C-alpha cells in the first residue's frame, strides 16, 4: 500500500531513546526513495497526458460538466434538459486527476517521513556529542556501529564547528579557564567532587590536580566536571554516599 514503507521508518524513529539508536536502515530508506521516484515519474506522465488532451483539435470545455465541445455544451443546456450526461472522457479525466492528487500527497508524505527519520537520528547524535564534550572519539563502539558513514561524518563536522565556536567564546570570556558547556544551567551541582568507580578502562586523563589513571575496578575522588562525560557513557559509576 502507498506510504507503508515510509510509515515503517517513522516507527523506527519513534524507537530512538536518549541512550539507544537503532541501526541505520539503509534498505528501508532506499525503498521509500524508490517509491517516491516512481510516483513522481507517474505524476509527470499523467500531467503530460492531460496537457496533450487539452491541446487536441476542437476546443472542449474542461469545466465540471464534462469535456464536450463548447457549442454542443451550450446547445444542450438550452434544450430544457434536466441533467447533463457525463461523458466517458470526463470520467477518465476525473480518474486521472484523482490519481495524480493521491500520488502528489504520497510523495509529500514520504518526504516528510524521510526528513523526520533523519532529523530524529541527528538529534540523538547532537545530544550525545554534547554529553561527550564534543569528542567524537569517545562515542561508544556499539553506537558507532549503528550509524551510517554519512552520520559519522556529520558528527565529526558538527563537533568540529561547535568546538571552534566554544573555544572562541571561552577565549573572550575566560582565557585562563574553561566552561562546562554540558552542565545544566538551571540546576547547580550538589557536589563539586564525587567518588566514582571505574567500570571500563579509560586510561589516563588530565584533571586540575594532575594526571589520573582510570583502570577498571579502581575508585577515585574526582571533580565532577572532569569526568562528567565518562559518567554519561557508562565508563564510570557514581558511588553515592550511604
Question: What does this entry look like structurally?
Answer:
By secondary structure, the protein is mainly α. It contains seven helices and five strands, in the order ααααααββββαβ. A three-stranded antiparallel beta sheet has the order 4-1-5, with helices on one face. Strands 2-3 form a two-stranded antiparallel sheet. Strand 2 (203-207) and strand 3 (210-214) form a beta hairpin.
Describe how the helices and strands are arranged:
Elements (H helix, E strand, L loop, with lengths): L3 H11 L11 H29 L15 H8 L10 H44 L9 H4 L4 H25 L19 E6 L4 E5 L2 E5 L4 E5 H9 L3 E3 L4
Helix pairs in contact: 1-2, 1-4, 2-4, 4-6
Low-confidence stretches: 58-86
Mean pLDDT: 80
> What is the share of helical residues?
40-55%
**Separation, N- and C-terminal Cα atoms:** 58 Å
Give a short overview.
The chain is mainly alpha-helical and 242 residues long. It is built from 7 helices and 5 strands.
Amino acid at each position: 500500500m502507498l506510504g507503508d514503507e515510509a510509515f515503517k521508518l517513522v516507527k523506527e524513529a519513534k524507537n530512538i531513546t536518549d541512550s539507544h539508536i537503532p541501526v541505520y536502515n539503509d534498505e528501508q530508506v532506499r525503498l521509500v526513495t524508490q517509491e517516491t521516484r516512481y510516483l513522481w515519474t507517474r505524476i509527470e506522465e499523467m500531467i503530460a497526458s492531460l496537457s496533450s488532451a487539452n491541446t487536441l483539435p476542437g476546443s472542449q470545455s474542461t469545466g465540471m460538466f464534462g469535456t464536450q465541445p463548447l457549442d454542443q455544451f451550450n446547445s444542450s443546456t438550452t434544450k430544457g434538459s434536466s441533467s447533463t450526461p457525463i461523458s466517458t472522457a470526463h470520467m477518465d479525466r476525473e480518474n486521472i486527476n484523482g490519481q495524480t492528487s493521491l500520488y502528489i500527497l504520497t510523495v509529500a508524505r514520504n518526504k516528510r517521513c524521510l526528513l523526520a527519520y533523519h532529523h530524529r537520528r541527528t538529534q540523538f547524535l547532537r545530544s550525545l556529542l554534547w554529553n561527550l564534550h564534543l569528542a567524537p572519539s569517545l562515542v561508544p563502539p556499539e553506537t558507532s556501529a549503528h550509524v551510517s558513514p554519512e552520520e559519522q561524518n556529520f558528527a565529526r563536522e558538527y563537533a568540529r564547528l561547535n568546538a571552534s565556536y566554544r573555544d572562541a567564546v571561552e577565549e573572550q570570556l575566560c582565557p585562563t579557564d574553561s566552561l562546562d558547556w554540558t552542565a545544566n544551567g538551571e540546576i547547580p551541582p550538589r557536589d563539586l567532587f564525587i567518588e566514582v568507580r571505574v567500570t571500563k578502562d579509560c586510561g589516563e586523563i588530565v584533571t586540575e590536580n594532575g594526571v589520573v589513571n582510570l583502570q577498571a575496578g579502581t575508585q577515585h575522588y574526582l571533580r565532577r566536571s572532569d569526568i562528567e562525560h565518562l559518567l554519561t557513557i557508562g565508563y564510570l559509576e557514581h558511588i553515592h554516599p550511604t
